[in-house]
Amino acid sequence: MVKKLSQKHQKEIIALSIFEAVRLRSEMYIGQVQPLKDKLPIIVDGKLIQKEKAWSPGFMHLIIEVLENSIDEAKRMKGKMKNIWIAINLDDNRVTIRDEGQGFHRAYSNNKKTKKNTVRTAFEDLHAGSNFRDTSTNLIGTHGVGAAICNILSEKFEVTTTNKTHTIHYEWEDYKVIKEKKEKKEKSKKSGTEVSFVPSPEIFKGFKWDKELIQTYLSFKTFLNSLDHHLQKLNINGSFIQNGKEEPIEITKNFLPKEKLHIEHKDWGTIVLWEKYDESTSVSFINGSQCTGIHQKIVNDWVNEHLKYNLAHHFYDTFISFNVPSEIMRFADQNKTKYAVSRFEIEEDLEKIFRRKLLRKFKGTQISQGIIQNIEDRLHHDNIKKIKKSQRISKRKISNKYSPASKKRDTLYITEGLAAAGAIKQARDSKTEGVYALKGKIKNAKRLSDLTNNKEILEIMSVLGIVPDEKRKPSYNKIVIATDEDCIDENTCIITKTGNKKIKELTYSDLVLTHDGTYQEIEQIIETVKEEYIEFEINGETFVCSPFHKMIIYRDGKIIEEFAKNIKKSDFFLIKE
Q1: Secondary structure letter of residue 334 according to DSSP
Q2: In whole angstroms, what is the distance from residue 329 CA to residue 72 CA?
Q3: DSSP 406
Q4: Alpha-carbon distance 171 to 157, whole Å?
Q5: Element (H, E) at 214
Q6: Does the pLDDT value for residue 207 go beyond 80?
Q7: From residue 180, how far is each of 117, 123, 184, 185, 432 by CA, in Å?
Q8: By the number of CB atoms within 10 A of the CB, which of 92, 360, 464, 469 ranks highest?
Q9: Tens of pLDDT along 450-504?
Q10: What are the pLDDT digits (tens) for 225-240?
Q11: Which residues contact 220 (CB under 8 A, 6 or more apart)?
């Protein structure tokens, strides 16, 4: 127990021991101690959801510190360690964690600096550990604080470690050694380390372990191990003990939805993305530590930019696990709850490794279509208002592009450019037939939000007097799309006397509907076959064209027109924002 501090004068300097300092200001070392209500990622009935829990981050952190020391040992052994056991007594709060590691290095010896045994140094001194130097194994514990903090904040603490030559055992009560045993290793005894502790009721008054939190944490660790080639064969075996009875801890290996995108890199880690479901949530890890940070925003920004909606992440969730180099493995607190590097330090590497692969796999999937539809549903009302406003503006600016029918609006011809419109205007019946000239190639409109900045379509809607969400008849009875002979896709439907047919299905025996309402014979069917095409990908968007399609590009400080087949990787496309 911590002695009551006495201070004879308010300016008197008090020197605290490590034990007194940690017990007095526990939050500095393990985060919030007193229970708080928070929405946490929890696995319930095999699903990852967000659930409100009353919990103590500091209390839970005691287990995390000790278990992750064993996982770090498994990483050092590169697949040779097969098992970790964890037993949690729900009656007295005792936690016991045992591994099959190699035990403490030189456990029988004393540390040169502290003059204490190596094991005592690790579990008594702050900033005493083996992971401070640069390493390629992406270890979790790098501060050398966690194990000692767990000892200080425990009523009882025990450790037994066996290496190749010795077995060392220590017991503490409120940070004071009450038992010490050193002996040579028996031949039959396996190497490894076992830590057992009971959290101090003085610090954690009335606290009890939460089964859901522990099951979720161990499920996360099991899933992360499956992604690490050094840990794929490592088993975490857990059990709860209550009223003298032992039951296994239910570890869920598959808690992510079946419909998901999974992107993986052998060194840097994993991104999993799925369409949001009821109460679902995102979760992320850096080198095995659960945390939030700029890495999540970077991934969200890629997807949101691709979907052209900055709040698109409201409609999907992610499971992110990155293994970063030690020089950029920094956290904002001892609990490692927030990854604390700048965007500049990590974004270039993440973009190079994950961005293109993620967006290419994401594009056109049922997941992306579902997210797009959810975005459309949310923005529907706003988009309708924007379209109506844009239509009002476009009505005032159509001018020479539109020549209306002077009396009765019967047929509207839509042409490619003013030159084609001029030819049709000379032959039309100006009393009943109108002409609208498209300027350039019309942009594809896949969803309602595409209409809000699609000038050509907005103008055609204004000419026809139609508005989304309103059941109005167009002001013209018929629309004739007057294009070049080879401009229509083979799957375009044409009205024939026997019903609608795709162009590729037409024969010379078919009679097709013409501009004057009569059905006429086909004079000529022209088929253009493109044996070669080129595919470009820009900002996650893919488009296909023929080799001789002309493109406007920026090259060597000049804006030029170039055939698609001559485009170089060093060229820049001009994108209209």
Answers
A1: T
A2: 15
A3: S
A4: 6
A5: helix 211-227
A6: yes
A7: 10, 13, 14, 15, 105
A8: 464
A9: 777 777 888 888 888 888 878 888 899 998 888 765 556 777 888 899 999 988 8
A10: 999 988 999 999 999 9
A11: 283, 285, 290
Q: Which whole-number Å values give the CA distances from 33 to 2, 58, 201, 335, in the listed order?
A: 17, 5, 12, 12
Is the pLDDT at 538 greater than 80? The verdict is no
Q: Which two tokens stand for residue 424?
A: 């049709």
What does the domain layout of the chain look like in residue ranges?
18-22+33-248, 261-363, 368-483, 534-573
Closest CA to 67 of 274, 288, 247: 288
CATH 3.30.565.10 assigned to domain 18-22+33-248? The reply is: yes
Q: Compute the distance between CA of residue 118 and CA of residue 107 in angstroms, rounded to an integer.
A: 6
The answer to whether 215 and 186 are in contact (CB under 8 A) is no
Q: 468-505 b/e with 16+ CB inside 10 Å = b?
A: eeeeeeeebeebbebeeeeeeeeeeeeebeeeebeeee
Q: Measure the CA angle with vertex 59, ends 58 and 65; round to 5°.
A: 75
Does domain 261-363 fall into CATH 3.30.230.10?
yes
Three-state SS for 248?
strand
Neighbours of 423 (CB within 10 A): 12
Report yes or no: 241 and 81 within 8 Å, Cβ to Cβ: no
pTM score over 0.85: no
Contact indicator for 134, 326 with CB cutoff of 8 Å = yes
Rounded-to-integer distance, Cα 285 and Cα 167, Å? 35
Contact present, 390 and 454 (Cβ < 8 Å): no
The mean pLDDT value of the chain amounts to: 87
Percentage of the chain beyond pLDDT 70 is 90
- Residue positions counted in the chain: 577
Note the CATH architecture for domain 368-483.
Answer: 3-Layer(aba) Sandwich (3.40)
Residues 325-353 have pLDDT tens digits of: 988 989 988 788 899 999 999 999 999 99
Q: According to the 3-state scheme, what is the secondary structure of 274-304?
A: EECCCCCCCEEEECCEECEEHHHHHHHHHHH
Kindly state the helix (H) or strand (E) to which residue 346 belongs, with its residue range: helix 343-350
CB 392 within 8 A of CB 465: no
